[in-house]
Amino acid sequence: MPGAGGQTAPRSISPAVARAWVDRWDAQQQDYLPDREDRFTALIDAVEAGADRPDPLVLDLGCGPGSLAVRLLRRIPGATVVAVDADPLTLGLGRAAWAQVPGLRFADADLRAPGWSAGLRLDRKPDAAVSTTALHWLTGPALAALYAELATVLRPGGLLLNGDHMVDDDSQPTLARLGRALIEREERRRFPDGHPETWTDWWQSAAADPVLAPLVAAREARRVDSEHHGSPASRLQVHVAALRSAGFAEVGTLWQRGENRLLCAVRPAA
Ligand SMILES: C[S@@+](CC[C@H](N)C(=O)[O-])C[C@H]1O[C@@H](n2cnc3c(N)ncnc32)[C@H](O)[C@@H]1O
Fold first, then answer.
1. Candidates 28, 137, 198, 228: which one to mutate for ligand 1, based on the most atoms within 8 Å of Cβ?
2. Is residue 1 included in any domain, yes or no?
3. Ligand 1 pocket: which of 70, 85, 91 to mutate (most atoms <8 Å of CB)?
4. How far apart are CA 107 and CA 119, in angstroms?
5. pLDDT confidence of 4, banded at 50, 70, 90?
6. Which one of 68, 224, 229, 260 would you pick to mutate in the ligand 1 pocket, going by the greatest count of ligand atoms within 8 A of its CB?
7. 42 near 73, Cβ under 8 Å?
8. pLDDT per residue as tens digits for the range 35-83
9. Does a structural domain hold residue 4?
10. Residue 16 belongs to what H/E stretch?
11. Which domain range does residue 81 map to?
12. Which residue, by CA, sits nearest to atom 16 of ligand 1?
């Protein structure tokens, strides 16, 4: 059963090897998301401008190997980031790659499990919960439950900042179609021969590296199911409705490129 413990980096994986895998992770993610770095920058700008303190406590939900967390800490060195994921392989790589980064702690928790936040052992209410390319893995009900729990966890006035592809084909179908078309065209221009390393390639290569074998075995033993394809959580209205019913006050897009957007929600002040 996932818990928030197990903070140690796997000894068998050196920081250099782990960072090389994280670099490959970033490259394959960036190939699918040409604006990934711009979206990270916008999200971190929002934390910086919205937290109202130089030492914000931030949760990174579905953190993978910690790409957003380390960028945030480079920009806001006084911050503390609790980086949450349920995948033993990406968590293990993150822990091995970034063990020396002050202010960063990885936590093993399944965001679908009610009460997941209790295991994080937070000593105060977070100023922000951030996430990139992760929450579309959840079903609609799991997303609603996650937002409802977050509304009790964040401090009054705290922010939820979710960077992901979220289509708005309910209220603006033509704009949604054009947004998708622009991204597809840009992808074809950038990668006329396809992606150098795809998502599947990355996972297959990681599974074939003997150094990562213990993490791969742990991953196989506890597979985090994905709702990737056709997930309701890839629709903007599903997020907006769930955030509103969880009691978030303002909900809206802060940054956008087609359907790739940064959605922000504000917990009401006390
Ligand atoms: C595409 S990756 C994105 C990782 C990272 N945020 C980034 O931008 O590089 C999606 C991540 O969400 C995590 N995830 C999916 N469902 C989850 C769940 N129920 N609980 C915790 N993490 C989850 C996956 O394990 C994976 O690491």
1. 137
2. no
3. 85
4. 8
5. very low
6. 224
7. no
8. 999 999 999 999 999 999 999 999 999 999 999 999 999 999 999 999 9
9. no
10. helix 15-32
11. 15-266
12. 137
CATH number of the domain that residue 57 is part of: 3.40.50.150
Report the number of distinct structural domains present in the chain: 1
Nearest CA to 28 out of 1, 67, 63 is that of 67
Q: Is 85 in the pocket of ligand 1 (CB under 6 A)?
A: yes
Strand ordering across the sheet containing 251-257: 104-108, 80-85, 57-61, 128-132, 159-165, 260-266, 251-257
Residue whose C-alpha is closest to residue 82's, from 7, 136, 20, 23: 7
Beta bridge partners of 261: 164, 256
Q: Is residue 2 part of a domain?
A: no
What pLDDT, on the 0 to 100 scale, is given for residue 134? Answer: 96
Q: Is the pLDDT of residue 158 over 50?
A: yes
Q: Where are the beta strands (DSSP E) in 14-79?
A: 57-61
252 in any annotated domain: yes
Ligand 1 within 6 A of 2 CB?
A: no
Query: In this structure, is the dihedral angle defined by the CA atoms of residues 216, 217, 219 and 223, taken in order, positive or negative?
Result: positive
108 Cβ inside 6 Å of ligand 1: no
- Whether 134 is in the pocket of ligand 1, judged by its Cβ within 6 Å, is yes
Is the shortest distance between the CB of 92 and ligand 1 below 6 Å? no
Phi/psi at 83 (5° precision): -100, 115
Taking the centre of ligand 1 as the mean of its atom positions, its distance from the CA of residue 186, in whole angstroms, is 25
**Residues 97-143: tens digit of each pLDDT:** 999 999 999 999 999 999 999 999 999 999 999 999 999 999 999 99
